[in-house]
Design goal:
Layout (H helix, E strand, L loop, with lengths): L1 E9 L3 H12 L4 E4 L16 E4 L2 E3 L2 H15 L3 E2 L2 E7 L4 E6 L2 E12 L3 E3 L7 H6 L6 H4 L7 E5 L3 H12 L3 E5 L9 H9 L3 E4 L2 E7 L6 E6 L2 E6 L2 E4 L3 E3 L29 E3 L12 H24 L1
Parallel strand pairs: 1-2, 1-8, 2-5, 8-18, 10-11, 10-16, 11-12
Antiparallel strand pairs: 3-4, 6-7, 7-8, 9-17, 13-14, 14-15
Bound molecules: flavin-adenine dinucleotide.
C-alpha cells in the first residue's frame, strides 16, 4: 500500500507526539511512525516523579505517556506503531516502511525527525550479554533488589551521582566509578555522595570488562594502568546519551557527536527535513518540555512554508 502525506514524523516520543498534535491543530495531513509497540519514547524510562512539565505532576513517565497518547487519540492524530523505516529516499521524498511485515511506501513533503536519544554504552566485553540478559536496572525502581548487595555505578554526571545515592540509601554498597576527577554532577548530589559511608568513589578509573555467565558477578576496572576485579551484583551505566540520528545523518549536517544541527525553526541543512527533541538537543537542555516545544515550532513553520508554496 502506498500513502502520501504532507508531513511524515519519525519517532513517537514527546517531540514527535507534540508535532502530531500541532499538525492536527493546523490541519496538516500527517503520519507519525514509531518503531516500538507503544508511543512514549524515553517516558517509559522515567520511574521517578515528574515535577517539571507544566500543568502535570506525574508519579512517573508512564503517567505522562498515557495522557499524551489519550490527547493524540482524542484529537484524531494519525500514527502507526510497531513500524520501522527501511529506507529513506530524499530525492523522491519517499520512505519505505515495514509495518508488522507489510511494506508501505510513503511519500511526503516534509520529514520531521523526532528519533530521540539512547543511552551511551561502554563498549566493553560482557556489556552486550548483560543487556541481552535484561540486567538493565533503574536506581529508583530496582533499588530494593540491591539491599546488602554490591553494585557498580559508572559516570560523573547527575544521573550517576543521584543513582549512587538512591542505591546507597536503600542499603547497597556502591562503587561509583568515573574516568576522571572532574564531575558534571550538581553539588547537591556530589557532597552527599562524598560523605556517604556506603559509597566508594573510584576516580581516574575505567571499566574494562563486565564478568558473569548467567548474571553479573564482577567488573574488571583499570586505575592508572593497574587492573583489578570488583565483585558486584549489578552494573548501572550512567555515562550520558547519544542522538539517534543515523537515519538522516547522510542527508543533514550533524555535529561531531551526531546531534543534528538545526536553526531556531528546527530546520536542518536539508530544506525538507526538520529535527526536534533529543536528536538535536544536548542533554543539558533536553527535557519533555523542550521536546514538546520543538514539535510545535516545526509544525508551525511547516504550515507557513506550505501556505507560501500554495501562494506561489
Ligand atoms: C531516566 C530518565 C529520566 C528523565 N527525567 C526527566 C524529567 O524528569 N523531566 C524531563 O523533562 N525530562 C526527563 N527526561 C528526558 C526526557 O524523557 C527526554 O528529553 C524526552 O523524552 C525526549 O523526547 P524525544 O521525543 O526527543 O525523544 P525520545 O523520548 O527518545 O523518543 C524518540 C522515539 O523515537 C523512536 N524512534 C527512534 N528511531 C526510530 C525510527 N527509525 N523509526 C521509528 N521510530 C524511531 C524511539 O523508539 C522513541 O520512541 C528523562 C529521561 C530519562 C532517560
Amino acid at each position: 500500500m502506498n500513502m502520501n502525506k504532507d508531513v511524515l514524523i519519525i519517532g513517537g516520543g514527546p517531540a514527535g507526539m507534540a508535532a502530531a498534535i500541532w499538525c492536527q491543530r493546523l490541519g496538516i495531513d500527517h503520519l507519525l511512525i514509531e518503531k516500538n509497540e507503544k508511543l512514549g519514547g524515553q517516558l517509559f524510562h522515567i520511574h521517578n516523579k515528574v515535577i517539571d512539565y507544566p500543568g502535570v505532576l506525574a508519579n512517573n513517565g508512564k503517567d505522562i505517556q498515557q495522557s499524551f497518547v489519550s490527547h493524540l487519540e482524542d484529537l484524531g492524530c494519525q500514527f502507526l506503531v510497531s513500524t520501522s523505516i527501511e529506507r529513506l529516499d530524499m530525492n523522491e521524498k519517499r520512505a519505505l516502511v515495514n509495518h508488522q511485515g507489510k511494506k508501505y511506501s510513503i511519500t511526503f513533503q516534509y520529514l520531521i525527525a523526532a528519533t530521540g536519544s539512547s543511552p551511551k554504552r561502554l563498549d566493553v566485553p560482557g556489556e552486550k550479554e548483560m543487556i541481552e540478559r535484561k540486567e538493565v536496572y533503574s536506581a529508583t525502581k530496582d533499588a530494593s533488589k540491591f539491599n546488602n548487595k554490591r553494585v557498580a555505578v559508572i559516570g560523573g554526571g547527575d544521573r550517576a551521582f543521584e543513582g549512587a545515592l538512591i542505591l546507597a540509601e536503600h542499603g547497597a554498597f556502591v562503587y561509583l566509578i568515573h574516568r576522571s576527577t572532574r564531575f558534571r554532577a550538581r553539588d547537591e548530589y556530589v557532597k552527599p555522595v562524598l560523605n556517604h559511608s556506603n559509597i566508594v568513589l573510584l576516580t581516574n578509573t575505567v571499566i574494562t570488562k563486565i564478568i558473569g555467565k548467567h548474571h553479573v558477578t564482577a567488573v574488571e576496572v583499570m586505575t592508572n594502568d593497574q587492573k583489578k576485579l570488583l565483585e558486584v551484583d549489578g552494573v548501572f551505566i550512567r555515562i550520558g546519551g547519544k542522538p539517534n540520528s543515523e537515519l538522516i545523518s547522510s542527508f543533514v549536517k550533524t555535529d561531531l557527536d551526531g546531534y543534528v544541527i538545526v536553526d531556531e525553526h528546527c530546520r536542518t541543512s536539508h530544506e525538507n527535513i526538520f529535527a526536534i527533541g533529543d536528536v538535536c538537543m544536548r542533554p543539558l537542555y533536553s527535557s519533555i518540555v523542550t521536546s514538546a516545544s520543538h514539535g510545535m515550532i516545526a509544525a508551525k513553520h511547516i504550515s507557513l512554508l506550505m501556505k507560501d508554496n500554495q501562494n506561489h
